[in-house]
Design goal:
Elements lengths: L30 H16 L12 H10 L1 E4 L5 E7 L6 E5 L8 H18 L7 E7 L10 H14 L14
Parallel strand pairs: 3-4
Antiparallel strand pairs: 1-2, 2-4
Length: 174
């Protein structure tokens, strides 16, 4: 008796529709609509960033503040502020954490984000016309920092440096 060769038979599969049945009645979004929706989504996410006018980006500006700026320490000397007057109407800020202070790039970036956010909330209270660099002291062994600690320390340093509004200024001007 003969055996049937089952493997030789091809079994036809039903093709699935490209549009799922639940969304079949809805028209597809065009690529322009998709891009517009994506832009709106990122705009919501980015609104909490430090505004561009308050960021220090030029190398020579950063070098000037790092070299000539006055130094202020937090109470536990974990956060360091270097302040130098500038001729613009905006206060500019830069954030630097040394690789010697925190080896892991992930931890370093997290600390920078925390410091930026704490500074961003205080930027409205700071007098205009200053360039500020915020450092993390590499000699302090305790490297973890949370938002509440950072915000409190930054506020205290700004008071110490007389940078909060309606106080006398004793920082070097350009």
């Amino acid at each position: 008796y003969a055996k049937k060769n089952i493997s030789a038979k091809k079994i036809k599969k039903k093709k699935k529709a490209r549009i799922q049945k639940k969304n079949a009645d809805k028209p597809r979004k065009s690529s322009i609509e998709k891009k517009k929706a994506k832009r709106e989504k990122t705009a919501k996410r980015v609104k909490n960033m430090l505004p561009k006018i308050h960021r220090m980006s030029k190398k020579n500006e950063i070098k000037k503040v790092a070299g000539r700026g006055e130094i202020f320490f937090s109470e536990n000397k974990r956060i360091i502020l270097k302040v130098y007057g500038n001729k613009t109407k905006n206060t500019k800020a830069g954030f630097s954490i040394s690789k010697l202070a925190v080896r892991s790039a992930v931890k370093r970036n997290r600390i920078k984000r925390i410091l930026r956010e704490a500074f961003r909330k205080e930027i409205v209270n700071i007098k205009p016309g200053f360039s500020i660099i915020v450092y993390l002291n590499r000699k302090i062994q305790e490297k973890e920092i949370n938002y509440k600690e950072a915000a409190g320390e930054i506020k205290k340093i700004l008071k110490k440096a007389n940078l909060l509004a309606n106080k006398g200024v004793s920082i070097k001007q350009i």
